[in-house]
Amino acid sequence: MQAAMANFGLETVAAEIFLLGAVCVVLLVDVFLSDRNRWITYALSLLSLAGAAYVTLRFSVDSRIFGLDGMVVADPMGDVLKLFTYGAVAVAFVYAREYLQRRDLFKGEIFILGLMALLGVMVMISAGSLLTVYLGLELMSLSLYSMVAFDRESGVSAESAMKYFVLGAIASGTMLYGFSIVYGLTGTLQLHELAVAVGEIGAGNVGLTFALAFIMVGVAFKFGAAPFHMWIPDVYHGAPTPVTLFISSAPKIGSFVLAIRVLAEGLEAMVASWQDMLIALSVLSMIVGNVVAIAQRNLKRMLAYSTISHVGFILLGVLAGTSAGYRAAMFYTLTYVIMAVGSFGMILLLARQGFEADRIEDFRGLNRKSPWFAAVMLMLMFSTAGAPPFLGFWAKLAVLGAVLDVGLAWLAAVAVLLSVVGAFYYLRVVKVMYFDEPADQVAIDAGGTLRTVLSANGLAVLALGVFPSVLMDLCARVLP
Amino acid sequence: MQFDWPLLSVLIWLPIAAGVLMLVLGDSAIALGRWTALLATAVTFGLSTLLYTNFDPTTAQLQFVEQRPWIELFNARYWLGVDGISMPLILLTTFITPLVVIASWTTIGRKPAQYYASFLILEGLMVGVFAAMDAMLFYVFWEAMLIPMFIIIGVWGGPRRVYATIKFFLYTFLGSVFMLVSLIWMYLQTCEAGQCSYAIADFQALPIGLTAQMFIFVSFLLAFAVKVPMWPVHTWLPDAHVEAPTGGSVILAAIMLKMGGYGFLRFSLPITPDASAQLDWLVISLSLIAVVYIGFVALVQQDMKKLIAYSSIAHMGFVTLGSFLTFELVRVNGDVRGAAMGIDGAMVQMISHGLISGAMFFCVGVLYDRVHSREIGAYGGVVNTMPVFATFAVLFAMANSGLPATSGFVGEFLVILASFRADFWYAFLAAITLILGAAYTLWLVKRVVFGAVANDQVASLKDVNAREFVVLGVLALAVLALGVWPAPLLDVMRPTVENLVQQVLTSKI
Lengths: 480, 509
Known about the structure:
Distance between the termini of chain B: 33 Å
Number of strands of chain B: 2
Mean pLDDT of chain A: 89
Shape of chain B: globular
Helix content of chain A: over 70%
Radius of gyration of chain B: 22 Å
Mean pLDDT of chain B: 87
Shape of chain A: globular
Largest interface: A-B, 34 and 36 residues
Helix content of chain B: over 70%
Number of helices of chain B: 21
Oligomer: heterodimer
Low-confidence stretches of chain B: none
Radius of gyration of chain A: 21 Å
Order of helices and strands of chain B: HHEEHHHHHHHHHHHHHHHHHHH
């Protein structure tokens, strides 16, 4: 440990450094591009992601290594999460392109902000100290606030961005306050030292519990767990669909890693305290998410509530407080991202000039127009509902196993009961696609890339559902 | 026995592959698609007969076993195999599906390719349910099966199809999620015992305390009672049956309901024998309520499909009754032979009901295709214009009411006989069905088939065509054959059933 500490260890943050450089280059290049050549920014952004993936693979680690005097950490879980996040962001960009072009929103900034948000997520993934966690979190959040407001013409977007910003700032502040109390009590911000210090002070310390409550508010807010979920429906609904898609991809991985780094690593000794808090958050999220989603007519809003319920399930894995639980939560998060990206991708596929395709009725009769994409959406919806043989089922199975393993059988029963409630609104989407007649005869107008990637996205949900070992083993390898 | 090629996998994946092929072909090549569907289902049936001919009826061991690693992380395996209980049910599945394809040859107007594809995929999944020997694999097939059925009812169903299909899906989904929790719990127990496993056989061997058994039993009961369906969780069935297209009703009645019965025999009884012994009164009472009360409900139905649906619930009551008489029989008179008889009866009843209810739904389908009404009041005197059809209808009605020499008699007789050995009143109540069943079925036939020609529509009916004749004829032969000579069926089941009774009587506490 000491040897590792002495090493300044720039290679632990090689990917972050590369991406930061790449973002600067993209930003500079973009300044000199005319709107006609904007695709260069888009291509360069994708190229940066590929480059970051290469750098991450080049400097991948087999075990935990500290860098920058313990401010950052590199571990196999981080590498896998980063690689996955690049993929999710790349897919988000690909899905977004046509939509943005049609609405005259195809500007360089959205890609640059997206990459900056990604950088924030990466910093969180690499965080070895509470300060680094906070830096990453704020970098991500600030980029997201501006992305939500990206469509200047839209009042709804501006409103939701404002809401997101104000609430987000309060949550960040609350969390920072919690961090400061922890620092005051333990004298350290470094997560691995913190774990030891908390153990020595004793998990029952009132000051620490007080701090934990504040930190929990921040974590719950960033996750969007009820009762700190108010921003999710408004932001998901108000933001331009590609931004909504983006928010449900990389930042979700950020929230997961935030919970893991802060709760599971730094405050591990306080598991008994945060377990109870997470149980409350999780049950509330599953109830609010699943029940309120039923009343939604807007698909983006429905998926927002569905997100809240999925957050409840992810928290089930975290609250188990075992490595099997963290593994299950990670598996669930990755699964969720794959499904959410696909579902919002479907909205982008159907969207046309002047038509957002974000109401559930807009999917009416899709089976008549395009049996294949109806099937893709069917797979995504059943997967999100947690029906086998799709990927979403295995994610639910993993978290249920984790909570049963720690003797919380009642929680598992509540969770499955609410997942049945949830199944209803996913079924409704399938219903309008298959059982209803189309409202118009306008064919799907989308390019080949979007079609191909979206098809692959849908098939992945099936293929990974039939052979879940692929993704499961990956999570098991990095979180032994 | 060990077969040198993976027969069960072929039975599962051949129909599914054909279904996917049909989806790719689409509606433009539907003529080709129909023949593909028929060929695939016929070949599947042909191959499945190998299960019977190569079956070793002297052992309760699993046969045609295939085992491959699937999800190594928690040791879930792709483990297939059949014994005397699952083999006949697989044959029933592969036998009914081609008939469904034939029966809907010309009657499906919209999206026919997807229609056949749904049935093909469904067939593969249903065979998978009966063949899976790993609980996780079983659960995946069990749940996945709901998706094609959801589509079948919702797309090609009647006016209230959306309500019916969502109710169907949510009911069955609700029932089975608690089973999932139980399965995971037992898996964790096997881990504590040293060897993590989802194998059903390991669950059966796992010692479980009584309280835990009770919870597991109730969760299984929820899953299987919804599927059977038992009173009072049966309300999805009449809706689903009425709204489903003919093929959907047939598959639902003939095969999907059997999965509940199969689940009781494969999971509830052997995994939680002590809880089953404690709570057998519950299942027996619910079964008797189903037999008697639902019989009365069937009497007053105005809709043919609804009447048959209620009749299905009553008949499936015999299956659960026969399965759960075991404890009473052994506890009261140590009558192991009687216990086996009850389970034998349950099994025969399942197969026979599969054939008869399927046939009756086909009959309704024949009328519906012509008149487009399911109301009993819209018919009358059909025999005058459709004599051949009337013959079949009367035969199946007789079989449904348990006439000797039809398969309907054998199962009910065995179960009633077994219940006599247990308790006179069980037998008395169960035997009421012979009266009630005869009443509602024959009254149905009287009103629809006999009497004077009711209206112009009936007067202009054309008798069954060759296609319909084949479907009904084949079913009629099967019903009669099983009724006259059930020995081949009973013989293949015997060692498995005896083994099951032994297993059930061994306490796991």
